[in-house]
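Example 3.2
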Amino acid sequence: MKIFAILVATAALFFAGCRAGQPIQNVEKAPVITASGKPATLAQVSTAIVRAGTRLGWQMKPSGKGRVSGTLVVREHTANIDVDHDTKTYTIRYKDSVNLNAKDGTIHPNYNSWIQNLDRNIRAELAQL
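Structure, written as tokens:
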């Protein structure tokens, strides 16, 4: 019985650690690469960013020249980002969130997964240009 209690306590600590905050990951100056090798226009980059986010459930909207703002709502969690871009690079930056335990530069690990998926989708959209 003592071994069982130790195993349960160990498992509880392990799973509690799985949801601990991780450093907030931004995507800094990712290159805009098209399949054709031709430079993309600012409008094409903006459209690719909006399409990529929308396909993943983000609410994406242009919020100025070279900027798209995005919001993702998953159950009771909300993440807000800005995607700054030009014809050569784009940057995804954390803006704020609700119920993602953001504190002192850390956040729920799901946020970083969402950003990695968004980055991957943006690259895929740009590659189609």
